[in-house]
Design goal:
Layout (H helix, E strand, L loop, with lengths): L3 H5 L15 E3 L5 E6 L6 E5 L3 E4 L1 E2 L5 E6 L5 E9 L2 E3 L16 E5 L17 E9 L4 E9 L13 E5 L8 H4 L3 H10 L7 E5 L28 H17 L9 E6 L1 H12 L6 E5 L14 H7 L2 E7 L5 H14 L4 E5 L7 H11 L6 H9 L16 H7 L8 E2 L4 E6 L6 E5 L6 E2 L1 E2 L4 E6 L7 E7 L2 E3 L16 E3 L18 E5 L4 E5 L9 E5 L8 H4 L3 H10 L7 E5 L6 E4 L6 H13 L2
Parallel strand pairs: 12-13, 12-14, 14-15, 15-16, 16-17, 29-30, 29-31
Antiparallel strand pairs: 1-2, 2-6, 3-4, 3-7, 5-6, 7-8, 7-9, 10-11, 10-27, 11-13, 18-19, 19-23, 20-21, 20-24, 22-23, 24-25, 24-26, 27-28, 28-30
Length: 605
C-alpha cells in the first residue's frame, strides 16, 4: 500500500536540549542582560530592536558571551545574535518571529506597574484555529488563522462580524498571533467591555510563495501588490477565503459587519482591497503602511464614499521609513474631502510590531461600533504638516531593507541544493536527516557555500548548516521546526508546504493550540463527539506544534479520511498519555517511524 508517512517526512534529528544558563535576564532597573554560549566563536554581537547591534564580551570563568543593554520600555522585542558575521537565533528561547526571511527570537519585558494591551491575563480567552482551504485562485491549498471570541463555543446561536487582518512584507500568517498578539489584546478588551465580539481572520499576504515550483513559475512570484484586482491575493480573498470563512463559521455577512486592515504591506493590501470593495467593507485600518491611491473613482465623489465608510483609520510613527508615504496619502484624502482618522507615534522605534500592537489596541474598540467610530472620525486631526525631512519609501530603501538574497533550498526534478552566504567562514557543512555524517559544502567566489543532495526533491526533512562550529538554520527558508531548543529548518520538497494535497479539493480538519496547557487538537469536519481519538504524545524536546508542523499529522488524517481508508477523527497532542489510542514520540527514533505509526493507527479506526 502507498505510505502517506513515507511521502510526508524524512528521517528526523533530535532537537538540541536546553543548556544550563539563562540567555536573557530582565533586571530591576529595566536593563536586559544577554548571554550566549559558543566556545568556538571569535566575535559575537546581539542585535535587539531597542538598542541596535552591540558587541558582547566573553567571560573567562563562565565561557558566556554577555552584554547588558537598556533600560528599555516594557514590550516585546525581536533579537538575534551575530556570530562571526552570521545571524543566529537564540537557542535558549522558544518564542520566535515567524518570517519568510530573517530569523529572530522574541524578548518579552513585562510591565511592573499597570499592564500592556497584549499581556496574558486571567480573563476568558478566545480560541485560535489553523485552517487549510482549497484556493482556486492559487491552484492549491492555502492557509489562514482564525480567532474565535470566548463565547463562540458556548453561545452556538450567535453570529459574529469579521475582521480580516493581514501581516507585513515577509511575515507569515502567524505573525499577528505570535508577535502581534491580537488574540490577547482582544481578550483583554472584551473582558473590560471595551470592544465588540468579533471573529478575526489572519490571511497569508504572499500566497504565491506556497505555490509548487513549476517550470517558468518560481515560488513567491506574482504577489501583485499594485493593482489589487487581478492578483492572487485579491482573487483568493474574494473567491476562496471569504467564502470559506462564511461557510465554516457563524459570520454576519454584510458590509457593516466586515473590517479589513493590516501592518506594512498588509495595510497596503487591506486599504487597496477594502477601498476597491466598499460593498463588502465599512471599516478599514492601516498600520504603518505604504499606501497608494488605488481605484481613483472613489475619490471623485467624496460624499458618496464617506457615506459608505464607518472608519478609515491610519497610524504611523514619525520615525517610520514609511512615514512620508503614509503622510502623503492621508493628505491626499484630506484634499479630496474623504474623512479619515490618523494617529502618529514618536517613541516605538518606527516600523515595528510595538507600533502594530499599539495601533490594534486603539482600533479594535472602534470596529463594528458605529458610535465610537463616528466620534473618532468627527474629531480627526488634519494630516501633519510637511517638513521636507520625511522618510520616503523608494526603490533604494526597498533594496536596503530587503536585499536580494540567495535561494535555498533550490529544487531540480530529483535533487535539492542548499546554499548559505558565509564569505568569512573557513568550514561549512550541511547537517540533515538524510545523512548520518555532515555533508561538506563548497564555497564559490562570492562567498556562497552549497551542496546538492541527489534524489531528495520529494522528501520532507529537517536540516541546518554548521558554520565553523556554529549551528545555523537556513535564513532563506521560511519553515522552521518548532523545537524547544535549536530550531532546524524544514525542507518540504519541490511541491511546497502543502504538496501532499497537490491540487485535490478535499475536506480539511482544523488545528488549534492551547499553549498554556502545552496541548494541540485536530478535528476532522465530519468528526462528531463519538469520533475516535488518537493521542499523540510529544517527545522530550518537541512542542505542541511538532506533530503537525513536522510530522504532518493533520495532512495524513485528512487524506486517509478523504480516500475512505480511515474514519474522521480527533488527534490530541499532549505531553502525557490520554484518551483513545496513544502514540508516544519517544518510542520512535525518527519522524517517519512516528508518521508510519500514526498511519497504521488511523487505518485501524
Amino acid at each position: 500500500m502507498f505510505s502517506l508517512a513515507a511521502a510526508c517526512v524524512g528521517l528526523s534529528m533530535t532537537c538540541c536540549s536546553q543548556a544550563d544558563y539563562q540567555s536573557t535576564i530582565v533586571n530591576e532597573d529595566g536593563t536586559v542582560t544577554f548571554q550566549y554560549k559558543n566556545d568556538k566563536a571569535k566575535e559575537v554581537f546581539v542585535d535587539i530592536q531597542f538598542a541596535g547591534k552591540n558587541q558582547m564580551t566573553r567571560d573567562s570563568e563562565t565561557g558566556l558571551w554577555t552584554v547588558t543593554l537598556g533600560p528599555a520600555a516594557p514590550d516585546m522585542y525581536p533579537y538575534c545574535f551575530q556570530v562571526d558575521g552570521i545571524s543566529v537565533m537564540d537557542p535558549m528561547c522558544e518564542q520566535y518571529f515567524p518570517n519568510e526571511g530573517f530569523k529572530n527570537s522574541l524578548l518579552e519585558i513585562p510591565a511592573k506597574e499597570g499592564s500592556l494591551p497584549h499581556d496574558i491575563k486571567d480573563v476568558p480567552h478566545g480560541r485560535m484555529e489553523y485552517v487549510h482551504y482549497y484556493s482556486e485562485s492559487l491552484g492549491s491549498t492555502n492557509t489562514a488563522l482564525v480567532y474565535l471570541p470566548p463565547t463562540y463555543q458556548t453561545d452556538t446561536e450567535k453570529s459574529y462580524p469579521v475582521f480580516y487582518l493581514i501581516s507585513g512584507t515577509t511575515d507569515t500568517e502567524e505573525v499577528y498571533y505570535k508577535v502581534g498578539r491580537v488574540n490577547y489584546i482582544l481578550d483583554n478588551l472584551l473582558a473590560e467591555g471595551k470592544a465588540k465580539e468579533m471573529i478575526v481572520v489572519l490571511p497569508y499576504g504572499n500566497p504565491t510563495k506556497l505555490r509548487p515550483v513549476t517550470p517558468g513559475f518560481g515560488r513567491g512570484m506574482g504577489m501583485g501588490m499594485g493593482g489589487f484586482g487581478g492578483d492572487v491575493f485579491s482573487n483568493d480573498m474574494t473567491n476562496d477565503l471569504m467564502p470559506y470563512i462564511e461557510s465554516h463559521y457563524r459570520t454576519i455577512n454584510d458590509r457593516e459587519s466586515r473590517a479589513i486592515g493590516g501592518f506594512s504591506r498588509g495595510g497596503n493590501q487591506g486599504l487597496g482591497y477594502g477601498l476597491s470593495n466598499l460593498d463588502k467593507f465599512a471599516y478599514l485600518c492601516s498600520y504603518s503602511s505604504f499606501t497608494g491611491t488605488y481605484n481613483t473613482s472613489i475619490y471623485e465623489n467624496a460624499e458618496e464614499t464617506n457615506s459608505k465608510i464607518r472608519l478609515l483609520w491610519s497610524g504611523v510613527g514619525t520615525d517610520d521609513f514609511l512615514f512620508g508615504n503614509s503622510r502623503d496619502f492621508t493628505e491626499f484624502l484630506d484634499q479630496k474631502g474623504i474623512r479619515n482618522a490618523k494617529v502618529y507615534t514618536h517613541d516605538k522605534f518606527g516600523h515595528t510590531w510595538m507600533n502594530a500592537k499599539y495601533f490594534l489596541s486603539l482600533t479594535l474598540p472602534l470596529l463594528f461600533n458605529p458610535e465610537a467610530s463616528e466620534e473618532v472620525m468627527s474629531q480627526a486631526i488634519p494630516t501633519i504638516a510637511r517638513t521636507g525631512e520625511e522618510a520616503q519609501f523608494t526603490a533604494g530603501v526597498m533594496a536596503a531593507l530587503f536585499p536580494r538574497s540567495i535561494t535555498s533550498p533550490v529544487f531540480s526534478e530529483t535533487d535539492v541544493t542548499f546554499q548559505i552566504q558565509a564569505p568569512n567562514a573557513e568550514v561549512v557543512t550541511l547537517e540533515c536527516e538524510l545523512s548520518e555524517k555532515p555533508l561538506a559544502m563548497e564555497r564559490d567566489n562570492d562567498g556562497v557555500w552549497s551542496v546538492t543532495i541527489p534524489n531528495a526533491a520529494d522528501i520532507v526533512f529537517e536540516y541546518n548548516f554548521n558554520v565553523d562550529g556554529t549551528r545555523v538554520c537556513d535564513a532563506s527558508n521560511m519553515y522552521l521546526s518548532p523545537c524547544k531548543g535549536f530550531k532546524p529548518s524544514v525542507s518540504y520538497g519541490k511541491q511546497g508546504k502543502f504538496y501532499m494535497y497537490t491540487t485535490d479539493n478535499i475536506k480539511h480538519g482544523i488545528v488549534s493550540y492551547d499553549y498554556a496547557a502545552d496541548k494541540a487538537e485536530y478535528r476532522h469536519p465530519d468528526a462528531d463527539e463519538n469520533a475516535p481519538v488518537i493521542t499523540l504524545v510529544m517527545g522530550k524536546n518537541h512542542t505542541a506544534e511538532s506533530w503537525f508542523k513536522v510530522g504532518n499529522a493533520a495532512a495524513i488524517a485528512d487524506i486517509l479520511a478523504a480516500k475512505g481508508w480511515a474514519k474522521p477523527c480527533r488527534l490530541i497532542v499532549s505531553a502525557t498519555r490520554g484518551e483513545g489510542t496513544n502514540i508516544e514520540a519517544d518510542d520512535y527514533n525518527t519522524w517517519p517511524e512516528r508518521a508510519t505509526a500514526l498511519e497504521k493507527a488511523l487505518l485501524k479506526l
